[in-house]
Structures are given as structure tokens and as C-alpha cells.
């Protein structure tokens, strides 16, 4: 009963021809072939008879009535349009959540590369919104000296405002800089140097008077900079900085799994 | 009440309105289920389940032909059932004559002389046996097209396949039926014997 590929193609043409589903060009070509090919005409005729037999088959009437009784549909009230859209909506939400999860995951992985950790260090709530001044290189981590420091004019900054005595606010702001998790970043990511330079607006006079602090340095009274003490909370800091950036990815993963399970249940309930 | 009014009432939970629709279309639903499954008991189950499912999902009916919507549900239900049975070998052409006719005396149908009756009955049996031997994907397309009279676009929507797939499945199904019927021409009633390809 096996048929060649050509026969199958011919039958497809003949079948579509019977249904009037050929393009005008296909129909013309087939009719030209039919005009000269008796075997093809016989093939078409037998296919036509087969279709006619199928169409003439008597309908089989239902052997009984299928009226629904209240008990049969007690738990099956017609669903509203909204509930019938539940399964597709859940599927869509699952897809969006999965996509977000991938994006966050990739962003975290990319953020782990050199120069990419800046996004992973959240500022404490009490810290003022410091603008990012410039990127720093590992060489800039060294405490700058007065000689190395370009003048404000050279650096294009406004001249320093003389401020003989720092106010309490300024000191707190400077401390806030040292308290940010960014201060702990050098310990992470295989010696990755944090490149964000956080400058408190209130402390700007100090910074401009001394240098650009490109690492989490504490500007001490008198303009001397000293390295922040980063070893006071090493273990906790490591753990926080290691896992905090992954929290959104983990959360989204869990959300995706939950939505996928809900979609599955919704589709099954819909099919029932 | 016209059909759209009955549908709207049924969508609001009016079971009597839905039962009016059931009485109108149950024969077509059952017929398709029987032709698809080739078994009266299975068709009975499929019909009942289809109508319950239709009632539950009436909110998703977006207008158009209600009977086409019902036939789409029953076709998909039977298609799933056939796929579940896939482990079992498809009905062989050798099983000719073993169609469950006694379980469904309604197969004997139509008016005319006793000879006509016999011929029609014989033809119906043979055709059903031939249909049963088709793979499910061809069977559903052939039945929706040549028994229910759906066009290609309606079939494509019903079985959720592209139009080109409908075209090729229909052609393969019809050609297979033709080959089967020609191979057993002597079993067909004289007036229904296929011509060609001797």
C-alpha cells in the first residue's frame, strides 16, 4: 500500500482540486495534465468517489438524550470570560517571570566581572544620594599625597570653599561613606576594586581640599585620609555582599516555578 | 428563543437553555464521536463529556458557529482518546466486518427496499472499518471535512494545525481510504464499487 512521493504529491493536488483549494495556476497545470493523462483522470475519479461515499455515509443518531442535570454540573457552572482567560494569563506571567529571572541572573553574572560590582552595593537608607564622581583604577587606591593631587582648577572643579572646622554633619556624612557596603567590596570578587567614588556633597570641601577620594577612604579631620577599617565585620559583610545580589534572582526563580505550577493546574482544569 | 439568545442564557448559568442546544446538536456530536472512535460505548462517553465540558467552557465561546465549536471540542476529545489508545495497534483492514453494528442499531439507517437497506448497511460498515484504520491525525481531518463539511480553515482552527497540514493530511487520508476500498472492491456493494486503477 506504499505510495511514492510523486503519487503522494499527485494525490494532494487532486484532493485540493476536488475541494477547489488550488491556486489558479496550479489548477490550470493540473487540468492540462488531466487532459492528456487517462491514468490521472482515473485516479481523480476514484478519489472523487471515495469522497462521495464518505459524504453519503448515514449519520449515526445519538442512542439517547444527553441532557445535563443540575447534579451533573453542580460543580461546573459556566466559567466567565475572565476565568477562561486565567490559564493563558498565568502562562504569560510565567514567561515574563522566567525572562526577568534570566535577565537578573545574567546581570548578576556580568556584574561579577571586573568593574561590574558597583551595581551590587546598595547604599544604606540613611546615606545621602551621592553622585558618582568618576571611576577609579587600582592605582588610584593608593592614598594620594598632596604632591600628586591636581589642583581643583586643573581638575575642573570649583575652588574649594574654605572650611576650617568641619561640621558634625560633614563628619557624619564622611562616616556614612565608610559605612556603605561599598567599603567592603575590595574583599570580594577576587580582588575586584570598587570603582564608584562616593562623595558626600556636604564633605565636598574636604575632598576638594585634599584629593579625589577614589576608594572608600575616610577623610579624617585635618584633611588626612586613612584607610577604612574593613575587617571589623568581615564574615557578615562577605556573606551579605555575596548573597544579597542573588536575592532577586532567587525570588524570581521561585515566582516562576510557582506560576508555572499554577499554569499547569489551570490548563488541566480548563481541559476537564 | 433563537440560538444566540439560548447561548447567552446558558452563559449566565441557565441549564434549561443549554439543554435546548443539546437537543439540537447531540446527534451531530455523537455521530462525529462514533465515526472517530468506531465504538458506541466510547462515543457515548465522549458525547456526554463533551457536552459537560462545553457547558463549563461556555464563557470562552466567542461567537461564530456554535455547532462548529461543539464539534471542535468533541473532535479534540476523541483525538486525545485515540492518541491514548495509540499503544494499541490501529484497526487492521483485516478486521473488516467486525464493526460494532449490533451495539448501535442506529447504523442501519435510511429508507428504501430491504436490498437498499442491506447495501447501505454494508457500505456503512465497510467505510467505518476503513476509517478506523486511518491514523488519528488523518482520521479527524477526513471526518471534519467529508462528514461534517467543514472547510480547511475551520479544520485548521479545530485541530490547531496549519492550513497546509490540513491539506496534506486530508489528501493522505482520502488516498488511503481509496486504496483500502479499491483493494477490497468485491466486498463493496455492487453499486458503490470504485472505478479506476484496475
How would you portray this structure in words?
- The complex is a heterodimer of chains A (272) and B (198).
- Chain A is mainly alpha-helical and 272 residues long.
- In chain A, 21% of the residues are buried.
- In chain A, a hairpin with a 5-residue loop joins strand 1 and strand 2.
- In chain A, 49% of the residues lie in helices and 1% in strands.
- The radius of gyration of chain A is 38 Å and the shape is elongated.
- Chain B has 198 residues and is mainly α.
- Chain B folds into 2 domains: 1-90, RNA polymerase sigma factor, region 2, helix turn helix motif (Rna Polymerase Sigma Factor, Chain: A); 112-191, Arc Repressor Mutant, subunit A (Orthogonal Bundle), CATH 1.10.10.
- Chain B has 8 helices and no strands.
- The termini of chain B are far apart.
- The chains are: A mainly alpha (272), B mainly alpha (198).
- Chains A and B meet through helix 1, helix 3 and helix 4 of A and helix 2, helix 3, helix 5, helix 6 and helix 8 of B.
Observed structural traits:
heterodimer, A: 272 residues, mainly alpha, two-stranded antiparallel sheet, elongated, B: 198 residues, Rna Polymerase Sigma Factor, Chain: A, Arc Repressor Mutant, subunit A, 2 domains, 8 helices, globular
H/E element order of chain B: HHHHHHHH
Query: Rg of chain A to the nearest angstrom?
Result: 38 Å
Sketch the major β-sheet of chain B.
none
Report the portion of residues of chain A in β strands: under 5%
Number of beta strands of chain B: 0
- Oligomer type: heterodimer
Please give the structural blueprint.
The complex is a heterodimer of chains A (272) and B (198).
Chain A: H1 5-18, H2 24-36, H3 38-56, H4 81-84, H5 86-111, H6 152-155, H7 168-179, H8 204-210, E1 218-219, E2 225-226, H9 234-243, H10 247-271
Antiparallel strand pairs in A: 1-2
Helix pairs in contact in A: 1-3, 5-10
Chain B: H1 3-11, H2 15-37, H3 40-56, H4 66-84, H5 114-132, H6 136-147, H7 152-159, H8 163-183
Helix pairs in contact in B: 1-2, 2-3, 2-4, 3-4, 4-6, 4-7, 6-8, 7-8
Amino acid at each position: 500500500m506504499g505510495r511514492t512521493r510523486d503519487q503522494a504529491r499527485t494525490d494532494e493536488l487532486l484532493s485540493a482540486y476536488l475541494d477547489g483549494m488550488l491556486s489558479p495556476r496550479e489548477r490550470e497545470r493540473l487540468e492540462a495534465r488531466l487532459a492528456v493523462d487517462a491514468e490521472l483522470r482515473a485516479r481523480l475519479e476514484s478519489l472523487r468517489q471515495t469522497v462521495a461515499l464518505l459524504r453519503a455515509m448515514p449519520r449515526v443518531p445519538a442512542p439517547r438524550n444527553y441532557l445535563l442535570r443540575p447534579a451533573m454540573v453542580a460543580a461546573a457552572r459556566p466559567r466567565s470570560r475572565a476565568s477562561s482567560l486565567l490559564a493563558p494569563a498565568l502562562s504569560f506571567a510565567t514567561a515574563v517571570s522566567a525572562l526577568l529571572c534570566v535577565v537578573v541572573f545574567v546581570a548578576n553574572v556580568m556584574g561579577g566581572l571586573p568593574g561590574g560590582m558597583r551595581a551590587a552595593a546598595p547604599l544604606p537608607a540613611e546615606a545621602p544620594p551621592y553622585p558618582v564622581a568618576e571611576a577609579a583604577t587600582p592605582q588610584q587606591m593608593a592614598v594620594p599625597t598632596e604632591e600628586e593631587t591636581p589642583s581643583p582648577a586643573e581638575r575642573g572643579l570649583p575652588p574649594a570653599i574654605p572650611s576650617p572646622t568641619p561640621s558634625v554633619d560633614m563628619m557624619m556624612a564622611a562616616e556614612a561613606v565608610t559605612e556603605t557596603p561599598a567599603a567592603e567590596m575590595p574583599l570580594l570578587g577576587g580582588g575586584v576594586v570598587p570603582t564608584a567614588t562616593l562623595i558626600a556633597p556636604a564633605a565636598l570641601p574636604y575632598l576638594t581640599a585634599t584629593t579625589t577620594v577614589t576608594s572608600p577612604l575616610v577623610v579624617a579631620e585635618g584633611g588626612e585620609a586613612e584607610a577604612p577599617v574593613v575587617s571589623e565585620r568581615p564574615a557578615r559583610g562577605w556573606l551579605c555582599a555575596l548573597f544579597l545580589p542573588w536575592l532577586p534572582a532567587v525570588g524570581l526563580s521561585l515566582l516562576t516555578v510557582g506560576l508555572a505550577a499554577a499554569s499547569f493546574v489551570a490548563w488541566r482544569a480548563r481541559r476537564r | 428563543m433563537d440560538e444566540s439568545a439560548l447561548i447567552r442564557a446558558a452563559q449566565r448559568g441557565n441549564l434549561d437553555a443549554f439543554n435546548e442546544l443539546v437537543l439540537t446538536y447531540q446527534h451531530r456530536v455523537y455521530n462525529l464521536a462514533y465515526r472517530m472512535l468506531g465504538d458506541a460505548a466510547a462515543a457515548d462517553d465522549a458525547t456526554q463529556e463533551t457536552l459537560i465540558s462545553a457547558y463549563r467552557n461556555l464563557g470562552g465561546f466567542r461567537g461564530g458557529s456554535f455547532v462548529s465549536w461543539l464539534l471542535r471540542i468533541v473532535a479534540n476529545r476523541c483525538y486525545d482518546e485515540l492518541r491514548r489508545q495509540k499503544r494499541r495497534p490501529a484497526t487492521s483492514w483485516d478486521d473488516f466486518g467486525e464493526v460494532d453494528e449490533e451495539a448501535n442499531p442506529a447504523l442501519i439507517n435510511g429508507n428504501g427496499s430491504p436490498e437498499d437497506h442491506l447495501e447501505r448497511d454494508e457500505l456503512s460498515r465497510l467505510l467505518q472499518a476503513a476509517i478506523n484504520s486511518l491514523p488519528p491525525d488523518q482520521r479527524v481531518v477526513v471526518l471534519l471535512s467529508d462528514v461534517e463539511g467543514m472547510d480547511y480553515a475551520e479544520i485548521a482552527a479545530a485541530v490547531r494545525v496549519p492550513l497546509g497540514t490540513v491539506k496534506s493530511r486530508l489528501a493522505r487520508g482520502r488516498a488511503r481510504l481509496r486504496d483500502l476500498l479499491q483493494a477490497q472492491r468485491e466486498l463493496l456493494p455492487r453499486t458503490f464499487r470504485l472505478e479506476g486503477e484496475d
